[in-house]
Design brief:
Elements (H helix, E strand, L loop, with lengths): L9 E9 L2 E8 L6 E8 L7 E2 L3 E7 L5 E4 L2 E5 L5 E5 L7 E6 L5 E6 L5 E6 L3 E6 L7 E7 L4 E7 L2 E6 L2 E6 L7 E7 L6 E5 L2 E5 L5 E5 L7 E6 L12 E9 L13 E3 L5 E3 L1 E2 L2 E8 L9
Antiparallel strand pairs: 1-2, 2-3, 3-4, 3-5, 6-7, 7-8, 8-9, 10-11, 11-12, 12-13, 14-15, 15-16, 16-17, 18-19, 19-20, 21-22, 22-26, 23-24, 25-26
Length: 294
């Protein structure tokens, strides 16, 4: 044990790390009744953890059950069903920036890596995306129904990974106003948390323990012909031409890699091109009439 805080001072229900600062949501235990609050703890010296002045949710007893953030921006779930945006750049004097009123019965929250969108998971089979571009006036982008309580949200590239009930759902959120379900996975028991590392999903499954899921590349690569022309139609009077272009496999949830490029002619002939992401096939023989090269 390196250090601990006094439960007589502040009860911590959830937290995240900002360097060596612990940004905690919970209850101020020095007040009667306990009051919902956000507090910052300096854990640079674990043997002597210092607590800054708490930010209180005025008139709201109980505690902050979920908190998330990146850098100096913290988002906390208040007892009244709102999500409060707090500037924590000054650890001794956190300040409220804005408030999203209709967060609902919040189970979890996660701020996207770009600090633009707040993801809120609710007990009532629902998850929301909130736009924080103007943090003083957060706005709802989409409200999305699922079958059960949303236990956690994580991110994998441009996808949101949602743990709900006995399922893990992967959504394309490139258009946050219309999340698109990409894949779904069944888990042995109710998923209470999910974390992403590379192409693996680590799922907390309560009494079923830890479940690890592997994301696989199921999206085909793209191949582009740029030589001799970008046009889909090319006129040739020599009976032979050189093909060249590019290829990539960065589509979908899990990027893959291009290992081989082949070409074929509808009139006969074909073979391997040299190269992969940049490829070339020289001396392709054409037959009189229309030749379709792929």
């Amino acid at each position: 044990l390196l250090g601990t805080t006094s439960p007589n001072q502040f009860l911590i229900w959830d937290f995240y790390l900002f360097g060596t600062t612990v940004v905690a949501g919970g209850s101020d235990a020095t007040l009667t009744p306990y009051q919902a609050a956000v507090a910052l703890f300096d854990a640079n010296n674990p043997a002597s953890i210092g607590m800054g002045t708490p930010f209180h949710f005025s008139g709201q007893s109980g505690g902050v059950g979920s908190i998330t953030g990146n850098g100096s921006l913290a988002c906390a779930a208040a007892p009244d069903g709102s999500s409060v945006i707090v500037n924590i750049s000054n650890a001794g004097n956190p300040q409220q920036l804005g408030r999203f009123v209709n967060a609902g019965n919040v189970r979890c929250m996660r701020l996207a890596p770009d600090n633009r969108y707040l993801y809120i998971g609710c007990y009532d089979s629902n998850w929301k995306i909130v736009d924080l571009r103007d943090s003083t006036s957060p706005s709802l982008v989409s409200s999305n129904s699922v079958d059960s309580t949303v236990g956690a949200v994580s991110f994998c590239g441009g996808a949101a990974i949602v743990a709900e009930g006995k399922s893990i759902l992967a959504y394309d959120v490139s258009d946050p106003s219309q999340p698109r379900l990409l894949r779904s996975y069944t888990t042995p028991w109710f998923a209470s948390d999910v974390q992403v590392s590379g192409s693996s999903l680590y799922v907390a499954n309560s009494t079923a323990g830890l479940t690890i899921l592997k994301l696989t590349d199921i999206d085909p690569p793209e191949v582009f012909i740029t030589t001799p022309t970008l046009s889909p139609i090319c006129t040739n009077t020599y009976g032979i031409l050189d093909l060249g272009g590019s290829a990539d496999d960065d589509l979908g949830l899990v990027p893959g890699s291009v290992t081989r490029v082949t070409w074929s002619n509808s009139r006969g002939g074909g073979g391997d091109a040299s190269g992969t992401t940049s490829w070339f096939a020289g001396g392709v023989v054409l037959q009189p009439g229309t030749n379709i090269l792929t």
